[in-house]
Amino acid sequence: MKIAIACEGNYVSGHFGHCEGFTIYELDKDKILGKSFVENPGHRPGFLPVFLKGLGTNVIIAGGMGETAQQLFNENDIEVIVCAQGLCDDVIEKYIKGELKSSGSICREHEHQGHCND
């Protein structure tokens, strides 16, 4: 299984489409088999879900994401988890332990900032 986390440096990005890149974790049940970084190839409508699917991604984790992007990920059979915050390595550990839950909230412009996990 591959989990992509939208990141800025070592932290989860507030908006997946404008992130620096994606930290991709390869998991086997509860063990991390590998970790790599892929630069964001650019924010274009509908592109990133297809790009990440091509990398074998099963789950995308981000701080925020718009409704259309969430729908496109779902259409590509990629689970979406939004409102994650903190260090990417901490977030993946929460995911592995089953402690990371998506708020399901939708980013409209940048209204989501400061409201995740309230």
From TrEMBL:
Q: Which domain of life is it from?
A: Bacteria
Any Pfam family from its record, for instance, is Nitro_FeMo-Co
Cite the Dinitrogenase iron-molybdenum cofactor biosynthesis domain residue spans from the record: 9-97
Return the PANTHER family for the record.
DINITROGENASE IRON-MOLYBDENUM COFACTOR PROTEIN-RELATED, IRON-MOLYBDENUM PROTEIN
Name the chain's protein. Answer: Predicted Fe-Mo cluster-binding protein, NifX family
Instruction: Supply the source organism for this entry.
Output: Caloramator quimbayensis
Source organism phylogeny: Bacteria, Bacillati, Bacillota, Clostridia, Eubacteriales
